[in-house]
Amino acid sequence: MVRRFDPIVLWQIVVGLLLLAAWEAIGDISGGMWTSRPTLIAVKLAGWLQGSLYPHLATTLTEVVVGVAFGVSLGALAGLVLGRSPIAAGILRPIVVAFYSVPLVALAPLFIMFFGLDMLPKIVLVGTVVFFLLFFNTFAGATSVDQELVAQIDLMGSNRRERFQKVVAPACSPWIIGGIKTAMPYALVAATTGEMLAARRGLGFLLSDAASQFDMTSLYAVLFILMLLGLAISEVTAWAERHLLRWRHAQG
Amino acid sequence: MPKGDMAGDMAGDMAGDMGGDLAPKIDLQGVGKRFVTREREVEALQPIDLAIQDHEFVALVGPSGCGKSTILNMIAGLLPPSAGVVSYDGAAIGGLNRAVGYMTQKDTLLPWRTAADNVRIALELKCRAMPWDEANERVAQMLTLVGLTGFEKHYPAELSGGMRKRVALARTLIYEPETLLMDEPFGALDAQLKLLMLDQLQDLTRQRRMTVVFVTHDLGEAITLADRVVVFSARPGRIRAIRPVALPRPRDVFRIRFTEDFAHLHESLWDELKDEVTRGTEV
Fold first, then answer.
1. Which of chain A's residues have a Cβ under 8 Å away from the Cβ of B72?
2. Which of A4, B18, B137, B223 is the most buried (most CB within 10 A)?
3. What domains sit in chain A, N to C, each tagged with a CATH number?
4. Any CB–CB contact under 8 A between B105 and chain A?
5. Interface predicted TM-score (ipTM) over 0.90
6. Looking at beta carbons, which residues of chain B come within 8 Å of A151?
7. Which has the closest alpha carbon to B236: B114, B63, B97, B116?
8. What is the pLDDT of residues A208-218, one digit of tens each?
9. Nearest Cα residue to A237 out of A72, A17, A117
């Protein structure tokens, strides 16, 4: 893509700077007790970037990545199996729906009691949230595979495995990737929520720790990092989607 | 005006012409199909008898909704008949009939595969176990044959309707099924390209002695290619007439339309068809 100068970008920068200046002015006038100030936050962030931030960032990222890996594989697998087997779906789907009706974040205290204070309970929580989102998406995909495509490869003499590999699984891939795209922000929410409840490390821990000490500057600094992290995650997934599903965006 | 009984006679004569004691490749005996929708029952096909011989090229012609596609679906084993028996090689068809290659009306290309990968898919299956190089070579030949060289790496969404039809044709022909079922395969092509495709289809299916059941609404296409043309009535479908096409092979698909025999046959078949077409559109 060729990047050309775009007046919109200029205006976006101007508006952003004005907002920061207004924030700075409010902090200046009010003393910054509740609002802190962008300059203080920037100094705080620069200090954290010297080293103390990384263990927290690594903890949260690990929880997200490992939890997503488990949740996506198990959720997609369950969705594919139940989506292709009406009997299994008839028996198990109501049970899955019943479990999903529990607000999943409410399971966090349970997981903390089961799995302790380190990364494991957060990984389980992230995995659970992602599992359900992937399950429902993949299930919808697997039940809507075009039967004519399946009939075609069957007539060509495919066995069950080939039918699955060459038609069913690729036909579900947009649904699975769509599920991952939806699930990523929830995964970050689940990880930080778990850390806020009980943790020794992680961005959620940093957030609740700052709040408990009325350290507004640190609190805004963590929020800023979470914002960047959320943006990065959605950019990466959007890029991956475009790349993996380029056959869908292809136009004649 | 010839009626159903005459059609039956013609079918009997043809069976005699094709070698008497030879069992038909595909045999429909009293085959009918009803579809039950939410509230009513629709009779798509009244019970018909039709025997198709080995290596024969049969065209089914008729107004839309007359059950032609239903017949193909039943021969492929995708749909059970509501009445009667469909046999293939003397055995009743239960389940899928894997001896047939089926080119459906809707092109069922896999949207995530490029044109070349779509054409290759049948060769990738274990039951053929073809070495990768050989498969690729045949894919390239096949794409040349249908005039799609240069479009190997295009996804179906990047191809026109006619190009997609040709990819589907290449994909079905490449694994040389002994019987070919085709449902209006060239509907989306322009007239010149259609002739080219008819020419290729005639060459390939006659060289490889395939049995072909070809559904079309284009009488000219049917006469150009077929050994026999079967005319169906409007819904509920019945066989209205069966005519052998005695034109010698190989036929010059580009010129045969201008011969006298072709014109006569076209006229007589059109007389059968036109009443049905007008009836069919009154619905």
1. none
2. B223
3. 58-251 (1.10.3720.10)
4. no
5. no
6. 76, 78, 96, 102, 108
7. B63
8. 999 999 999 99
9. A72
